[in-house]
Amino acid sequence: MASLSRRTILATVFAAVLGSAAPMSAASAGDMRIAFGDLPGIESIQTLAAIERAKERGVNVELIILNDEDLATQAVVGGQADVGIGAPYTLIQKVGVPIRIFAQISTQRFFPVVNSEFYKEWKDLDGQEVAVQARGSGTEAVMLLMAKNNGIELGQISYVPGSEVRRNALLQGTIKASIVDAANRRALETEAPGKFIVLPVENVSASDETVFATAEYLKNNAADVDILVEELIKTGREITENPAVALELRNKYKLLPDLGAEADTEITEYYKETAEAGALALNGGGAEAAAADFAFFTAAGQIEGDPATLKVEDFWDTAAIDRAVAKLGKK
C-alpha cells in the first residue's frame, strides 16, 4: 500500500488548525468567498476571468488561495469559505462532508513525468516515490489508476501543491517522478530537452476542477451561484471557440501579473491545446460528468461502489447548471 509522506501530515495539521480557527463572519448577500485549492497559474485564467466577470455583475468575490484541495474543502465545511475549487469526491463519500459539486470547470489533462536517468516506463515506478498535487486530487487518482493498470504499486506519495512547483522540483532533481499539467509539461520539454519522459495515460476524461459548496449555501445564494456558473460556462465556451480569448481576458483583467508578458506565448499555446482537447466544460458538467467521474475515481480506488449505481445527487447539485444551460442554450 502506498505510504503517506510528511507533507500529508503537515496538510492534516493545517486542516485541523483551519477547522478549529474562529469562524469568519458569515458572508452577506452578494458576497462569495472562494477557496482556491491550488496555486493559480496559466491553467487558471478561465476561472479567474469568470470570477472577474461575476464581480462585474455584482457578486463581491473574495478569492482565498489555500494551495491544497483538502484545505479548500475544510474551509467550505468550516465556514471560512462559501465555495471551493477542486474535485472533492473522496471527501464527500468517505468523510461524509456536507458539500455538493455544482459545476464542472474542466476535465483532466495531466502528464506523468519521470526523470529518464532513473525511470523509462511505468513498471520502473514499482515501489518508487512519486509527487502529486494533493490527497484525493485528480493527479493522485491518475497515478494510482495507471499504477493499477500497469500492475505495479507505488511507494511513498508526496503531496506537492502547484504544477509549476513540481516542475521546478523535477528540474532541480529533488523529485524524480511526478505529474504536471500541459503548460508545465511543455516547459520541461523546452528547459531540459530529453531529460524527462512522459508516461502514457489512457482513457481519462474525469473532472479536473469543479466548484462546490454546502447545500445550505447553494439554496440560500442561488442568484450569486447562478452568476458564477453562467460566467464559467461562457468563458469556457469563448476560449474553446477562440483560444486567443484567454490572452485577451488575461490582459483585460490583469490576471497573473507576476508572470509578465513573456507568458503570453505559453498562454496562447496552452489554451489552443486545451481547446483542441475539449477540456473546458461547455455545459457545466452534470450527470454526464458525474458518470465519467464515478468510473474514474472508483477505478482509481478513491471512491467505492459500482459506478452504475452511484447516485449523482449524493455528490452533485445540478440545479444551477440546469438553469444556466436553459438560459444560455446547450452546446
Automatic annotation (TrEMBL):
<protein>
    <submittedName>
        <fullName>Nitrate/sulfonate/bicarbonate ABC transporter periplasmic protein</fullName>
    </submittedName>
</protein>
<dbReference type="InterPro" id="IPR015168">
    <property type="entry name" value="SsuA/THI5"/>
</dbReference>
<comment type="similarity">
    <text>Belongs to the bacterial solute-binding protein SsuA/TauA family.</text>
</comment>
<dbReference type="GO" id="GO:0042597">
    <property type="term" value="C:periplasmic space"/>
</dbReference>
<dbReference type="InterPro" id="IPR006311">
    <property type="entry name" value="TAT_signal"/>
</dbReference>
<feature type="domain" description="SsuA/THI5-like">
    <location>
        <begin position="55"/>
        <end position="244"/>
    </location>
</feature>
<keyword id="KW-0732">Signal</keyword>
<dbReference type="Pfam" id="PF09084">
    <property type="entry name" value="NMT1"/>
</dbReference>
<feature type="signal peptide">
    <location>
        <begin position="1"/>
        <end position="26"/>
    </location>
</feature>
